[in-house]
């Protein structure tokens, strides 16, 4: 109780903690803007295919590996964050990310680029990504879904800035020089922000707030081991499906526009910024909904939208720009929603004191979805000669996701406690 009382005078950036904590969300947004450039990968693919003389499947390798390593490092960071501190973890991750970008600027073949961008940049992102989310969750126990959703809006909105910026730099200096320039800028920004990040002291909570959310389950349920809950496995599979479909769509956004709709490359690149806007705005919306509704209802709504988008793209033809934009806005919107729904559901259903570790484990679903989705999309294109056929398995998975969400993403009785 003394810790809580002392927190009444706690200052952040010279402001009372209840006000200053919003500036930590702003810093988290900027941090994730730098990391979210991975969602602009479709802008890099065509130039790299020409430069390195590779096909559609090979040009997806760096993107696939960056997402795989990004998700694989999340659990590791969760277990070491409290021990090493937010600043040190962010500095380590930012440095590795910068090295990866710099080495990518001199990569001469797809194997080297897959390591420098896919492994190193992915590792850096994985180390840093969870830090602002944990900070938001701990500083905002009263608005955890909204706070996390607002923070990760930076990752989703990143292509709004980085996609046209990358296109401009690639046209002016080439794709390799673009890696160099982005790497230098991102590293400087991440290291500067790292010095300002901090967690609240133990026991801190906003004035007058009590943990009485109607969506909170019993303490007994929340404290039981993660792997003993059916809801954990349901959330993991639902998250994997949501990210598999979403990341597949993101990875092929620009090529689909050019090959199926016959949009010119400049317009196709610009459309990525529109999609990123939907991807970013869905995060606080889904976080807000997840604070108020059961996760299964939000999940079913997401899968229903995905099903609608896949049906639209199955009927896509040359010149159907409006249909294409509508479908891909939905794909990006739903992926952003899952990146807010999954962490909020993790906070609600499982012990919030172990949030960093728990969400790190749940987040491995993101890596599995990324690996399968990007490889399948590229392979379908190479085998059938068109990305149209990639939308059929997406529709099937959306239907499967609806059934899993209804059956598992709900409260369950505690057994053996």
What does this structure look like?
The protein has helices spanning 2-6, 17-35, 41-52, 56-59, 61-84, 86-104, 110-139, 144-151, 153-173, 175-194, 219-223, 230-259, 265-292, 295-314, 321-349, 355-362, 364-384, 391-408; strands spanning 11-12, 15-16. With 417 residues, it is mainly α. The chain has one domain: MFS general substrate transporter like domains (Growth Hormone, Chain: A, Up-down Bundle). Strands 1-2 form a two-stranded antiparallel ribbon. Helix 6 (86-104) packs antiparallel against helix 7 (110-139), helix 7 runs antiparallel to helix 8 and helix 12 (230-259) runs parallel beside helix 17 (364-384). The longest helix is centred in the first third of the chain and has 30 residues, at 110-139. The protein is globular and about 60 Å long. Mean pLDDT is 84; it is low at 1-7 and 213-218.
The gist of it:
With 417 residues, the protein is mainly alpha-helical. It has helices spanning 2-6, 17-35, 41-52, 56-59, 61-84, 86-104, 110-139, 144-151, 153-173, 175-194, 219-223, 230-259, 265-292, 295-314, 321-349, 355-362, 364-384, 391-408, and strands spanning 11-12, 15-16.
SSE topology:
Layout: H1 2-6, E1 11-12, E2 15-16, H2 17-35, H3 41-52, H4 56-59, H5 61-84, H6 86-104, H7 110-139, H8 144-151, H9 153-173, H10 175-194, H11 219-223, H12 230-259, H13 265-292, H14 295-314, H15 321-349, H16 355-362, H17 364-384, H18 391-408
């Amino acid at each position: 109780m003394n810790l809580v009382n002392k927190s009444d005078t706690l200052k952040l950036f010279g402001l009372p903690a209840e006000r200053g904590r919003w500036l930590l969300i702003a810093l988290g947004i900027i941090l994730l803007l730098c990391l979210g450039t991975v969602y602009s990968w479709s802008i890099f693919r065509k130039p790299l295919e020409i430069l390195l003389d590779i096909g559609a499947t090979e040009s997806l390798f760096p993107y696939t590996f960056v997402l795989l390593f990004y998700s694989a490092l999340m659990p590791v960071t969760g277990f070491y964050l409290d021990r090493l501190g937010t600043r040190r973890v962010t500095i380590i991750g930012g440095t590795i990310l910068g090295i990866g970008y710099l080495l990518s600027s001199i990569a001469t073949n797809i194997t080297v680029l897959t390591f420098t961008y896919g492994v190193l940049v992915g590792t850096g992102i994985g180390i840093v990504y969870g830090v602002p989310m944990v900070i938001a969750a701990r500083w905002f126990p009263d608005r955890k879904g909204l706070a996390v959703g607002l923070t990760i809006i930076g990752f989703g909105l990143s292509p709004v800035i980085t996609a046209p910026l990358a296109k401009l730099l690639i046209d002016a200096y080439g794709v390799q020089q673009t890696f160099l320039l982005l790497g230098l800028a991102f590293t400087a920004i991440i290291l500067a922000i790292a010095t300002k990040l901090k967690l609240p002291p133990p026991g801190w909570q906003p004035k007058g707030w009590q943990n009485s959310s109607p969506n909170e389950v019993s303490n007994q349920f929340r404290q039981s081991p993660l792997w003993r809950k059916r809801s954990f496995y349901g959330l993991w599979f639902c998250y994997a499906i949501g990210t598999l479909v979403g990341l597949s769509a993101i990875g092929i956004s620009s090529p689909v526009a050019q090959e199926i709709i016959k949009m010119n490359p400049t317009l196709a690149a610009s459309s990525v910024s529109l999609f990123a806007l939907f991807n970013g705005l869905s995060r606080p919306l889904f976080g807000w909904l997840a604070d108020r509704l059961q996760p299964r209802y939000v999940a079913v709504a997401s899968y229903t939208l995905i099903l609608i988008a896949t049906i639209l793209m199955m009927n896509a033809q040359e010149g159907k720009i409006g249909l294409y934009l509508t479908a891909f806005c939905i794909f990006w919107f739903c992926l952003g929603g899952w990146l807010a729904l999954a962490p909020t559901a993790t906070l609600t259903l499982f012990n919030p004191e172990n949030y960093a570790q728990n969400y790190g484990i749940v987040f491995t679903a993101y890596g599995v979805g990324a690996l399968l989705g990007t490889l399948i999309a590229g392979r379908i294109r190479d085998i059938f000669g068109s990305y149209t056929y990639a939308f059929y398995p997406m529709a099937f998975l959306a239907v499967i996701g609806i059934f899993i969400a209804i059956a598992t993403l709900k409260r369950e009785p505690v057994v053996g406690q």
